[in-house]
Design a protein that fits this description.
The chain has about 375 residues and is an alpha/beta fold. The chain folds into two domains: about 180 residues, D-Maltodextrin-Binding Protein, domain 2; about 160 residues, Periplasmic binding protein-like II (D-Maltodextrin-Binding Protein, domain 2), CATH 3.40.190. Strands 1, 2, 3, 4, 5, 6, 7, 8, 9, 10 and 11 form an eleven-stranded mixed sheet that branches. Strand 1, helix 2 and strand 2 form a beta-alpha-beta unit. The chain is elongated and about 65 Å long. It starts with a helix and ends in a 23-residue tail after the last helix.
């Protein structure tokens, strides 16, 4: 007779726990609706951030999402400045894990143990609820599928050092994250040798992968040395003559998600994080060609071999690798500028009416 009694007791406990959880969720929803707004600093493509905001607003009216699209490095500067002034304007941060780690070290993020985090691999979340790595993309070589007068499609970065690629390449003026991954995989000496050879290729430098990918699709230069798979795939889906190849090594980039301390709309921030980590939020990111961490290889396995998928983990932004890559990246960027030159003052205009924002948060 003890077993039925225990079973009933367990059911009672489960019922009260479920009721308590539902009551807490309703309490958070009511508070979020009273706050009426959530401010989201996003380093993803503007279109993707807007889609996430619109879906959240539809699900939780009348809460509005104010999305501020800002490059990852500039976001770091703004977050530190707001924290020092003790006046945070933002509630939720989405940022390249490379820069995200530096902000984390400043103590700017607050703990929130979202119930949605349990669906993510242990390496992609911390025990204290300060961060979750919830999406990823890849550094690839992008090329215009129509503009190859007598030129073969490149197979890797070293192919681009051949004489026939001179004056054919375009590249972001700051690729410290790509360099960090390359140094982790190939070593510093070989990476710097690659940069020295690329420096002889009359590369056109611009700021932001989104702009660069648009320029490649428009045919201004046929190849982007480093592009973001998600941005290329989105343009290809829209009919642009652009595609990408996965060179060796494939450098992966993860993105961190966190609530900030002193968030002006804390309940709305928690609700928004729950949404971004939910199956629904991950589906939106997947549709935008980001690699959802919840189902890490869905949509990518058909295109890549298992070996390439494993290579994509290099420089991906896991916590133990972040500090090492950040040190290499900071030093490497100075060496990159010494080798390739500082092109920051070269650009007088932005062609095609495009934003200079980066599609994979490198700026």
């Amino acid at each position: 007779m003890r077993f039925p009694s225990l079973s009933v007791g367990n059911l009672i406990v489960a019922f009260f726990l479920s009721s308590f959880s539902s009551a807490m969720a309703q309490q958070m929803l009511d508070a979020a609706r009273k706050e009426g707004q959530v401010v989201f600093y996003a380093s993803m493509e503007a279109q993707s951030a807007q889609q996430l905001g619109a879906a959240f607003e539809k699900k939780y009216p009348p809460i509005k999402v104010e999305t501020v699209r800002i490059g990852s490095e500039k976001m770091t500067t703004r977050l530190i400045a707001e924290a020092q002034a003790r006046k945070m304007s933002v509630d939720v941060v989405h940022q390249s894990a490379f820069d995200f780690y530096g902000v984390l070290q400043k103590g700017i993020f607050d703990s929130y143990l979202s119930p949605e985090r349990s669906a993510f691999p242990a390496d992609y979340r911390d025990d204290k609820g300060l961060w979750t790595l919830h999406s990823a993309t890849l550094n690839v070589i992008a090329y215009n599928t129509r503009r190859f007068p007598g030129l073969p499609v490149p197979k890797g970065f070293w192919d681009l050092t051949a004489p026939n690629w001179k004056s054919q390449l375009i590249m972001d003026e700051n690729e410290s994250k790509w360099m960090a991954g390359m140094m982790t995989y190939s070593g510093e000496a070989k990476t710097l040798e690659l940069l020295r050879k690329l420096a002889t290729q009359d590369i056109q430098f611009r700021t932001g992968h989104s702009l660069i990918q648009t320029m490649v699709a428009a045919g201004e230069r046929p190849v982007a040395v480093v592009a973001c798979a998600n941005g290329v795939d989105r343009r290809k889906k829209d009919g642009a003559p652009i595609d990408w190849i996965a060179p060796e090594p494939v450098i992966g980039l993860t993105f961190g998600l966190a609530v900030v301390k002193g968030a002006p709309h804390p309940s709305a921030a928690h609700l928004f994080v729950d949404f971004l980590l939910s199956h629904e939020g991950q589906e939106i990111l997947g549709a935008a060609a980001y690699r959802e961490v919840m189902a890490r290889e869905r949509g990518w396995r058909e295109r890549w071999s298992p070996e390439a998928l494993e290579l994509a983990r290099v420089g991906e932004g896991l916590p133990q690798a972040l500090l090492r890559n950040r040190i290499v990246g900071d030093d490497g960027e100075a060496e990159r500028r010494e080798i390739l030159g500082d092109r920051s003052e070269r650009h007088d205009h932005v062609p095609f009416g495009s934003s200079t924002s980066s599609s994979c948060a490198s700026r």
